Structure formats: structure tokens, C-alpha cells
Amino acid sequence: MDISFKIRAFYIKAKSWEYWPMWLVYFPASLYFIYLSLKARSFFFFSAANPSIETGGMFFESKWSIFQLMPKEYYPATILINTPARVESILEQMDKAGITFPIIAKPDRGERGWCVKKIASLNELIAYVKLVQVPFLIQDYVAYPMEFSIFYFRNPNSKKGRITSVTLKKLLTVTGDGQSTIDTLIKTSDRSFLQYYRLKKEGNINFNTILAKEEVQILVPYGNHVLGAMFLNYNHIIDEALTSTFDKICTDIKGFYFGRFDLRCTSIEELKQGKNIALLELNGSGAEPAHIYAPGFSYFKAQSVITQHYKMMYDAALENKRAGISFMSFKDFNDTRRLQRNYKKLVNG
Fold first, then answer.
1. Domain that holds residue 235
2. How many distinct structural domains can be found in the chain?
3. Which of 25, 149, 227, 298 is most buried per CB count within 10 Å?
4. Per-residue model confidence as pLDDT tens digits over 249-292
């Protein structure tokens, strides 16, 4: 990585807070979190916001366990692969579940796109099994054209909730001009430039290919901000129809009150009708209202949005505590953090 790349990358990140490190993004709002913790008399009050999810969904929760809570008609065929795993056994499980290539593979416990990979062939699956020495999920790849994140909150004493954030995820792509290579096109955009070395290391794309004029090449096939997706604020589509659809989905998920769905759908109209949607993941207390990462969104406005969501999480947790749900203890927190560190070592070495 040459010095000119580092200088440009530093400049891009410095001028756009969406690329700042998480501790800096959350530092101002964290003071409010401390205030709420003192009110709750526990820094781990978040664990009671979603009693049916480990740690309330703040960290190191099992995705597989969450899928077992969700209505099956809303998420794609998904299987859990325990390790060590034989490829032959995995293929049998896939066949039984009706899953075919391409697939999405991701560790059962992980966040922010960690070790998520689209796998298109048997050889790629074999390579992934060798890399990931922890239990992982295999999910049918859903090719619906639109990808959203939708944040939902409901007071435990109410049957009606509200949607507080809708984010359209624009996949990382380049568009050909009939002359330039993919290598050159990636370097022309700040967003794709930041992913340059990672994409080259993965080796999934021929950087010497010249795309035809207006030809679009998808660089990353899933809407993850860390991996280059652009997040757009779509809060303007929030209405009674969309809220009612997610009330129906969420009231069927026992012990869930606060979190974000990542999903794909065919259109906004069908999303509001609850038709042709695929819930790819449900994140609990650790989820973010992703629309704050839209280009041009004010850093200070983002702090307000984050603190508002902390208050919703606090309200859900306190209501559940009144109903007899205990907060996570300091010992449980430390034990879970230690398990998380050991878990990642198995993959990262």
C-alpha cells in the first residue's frame, strides 16, 4: 500500500464522518448512554430490551437462535453448519433445505460484515469451510432488486410499534465507459477506492476487464456499509401501511421490541404490503438506525438520532425489568466478551 493511497484514504475519511472509527462516531452519544445506565443502575440494561435474544442483541448473539424466533415465511432458507464440518454433509443439508448456489455464508456470531461471503461454487464453499473454524450459517441468496434496513421499536406493553429508520442500501458498483478498466474505475470513486486493496486481495474480480459503456459491475453483492455500500435516507416512505406490516411481523417474534431488520424486496409497494420480502437478518440492541450514514447527514443530527434510540432501548428494558426480566450481570458480560474474543481468534488466527 503506497503512501499516495494512504494520504487519499485519510483525506476521504477525514472529510466524511460516515467513515470515522466507531468510538469517535459514538463518543458524544455515549455520554447519554452513561446517564441512562446510572438511571437504570446497570451499564448492561440493554440486555433486557429484547429478552429472547442473547445480550439483548448488543453483541455476540447467535443469528441462528434469532432466526428460530422469526416467522419462517419471511426469511430465506437458512441452515446452521456446526464445525468441524464435512463438505459432503453440508451439501446434503443444503439439498434437504432446497438451497442451491449461489449462497450467502456468514458466522453464526459476528457483526459489521465480518466473514460474510457470497459463494457461487463448490470450490468456493470448500475454501470457506477451511477458513471459518466456527459454526456458520448458509442462506439462500435472494436476488430481489432492493435492499433495505428498517428499524422498529415497540413498547412491551403495546401491540403497536413504530418504524424509526428506513435505509435504502445501494450496492458498491462501478459503471463502464467503454475505455477504462475496472481497476481505473474503482479508483475514480472515493467509496470504491477505499475498498480497492480488499477487493484485489479477494480476487473475485478481474481488474483488467474493460466494461462496455453504461455496463454496471457489482463489486460487493450485499449492502454492508463497512464493505462499501452507500446508505440512503428513506424515512419518507414510513407510513401506516409499512408500520402495520412490521407490527404483524414483530408481534410474532417473542421477546423482541427494539432492533433493525436487514431485508431485500421486489418494490416499495410490495414491502408495505408484506409481499415478496426476505428478512436477511435481525439485529437487536447493538443495531444502528442506518440512515444516519447517508452522505451529507449531519454528524450532530446523527448524535440526536442515536440518543433517541438509546432512550427507546432504555424504555423497553425498564418495562421488561418491571415484568421480572433481569439485567445482565458484570460477570456474564465479562464471560461473554471472553467467549467472543476466543471465537474470533478461531477465524482470524
1. 17-76+142-171+220-328
2. 3
3. 149
4. 999 999 999 999 999 999 999 999 999 999 999 999 999 999 99
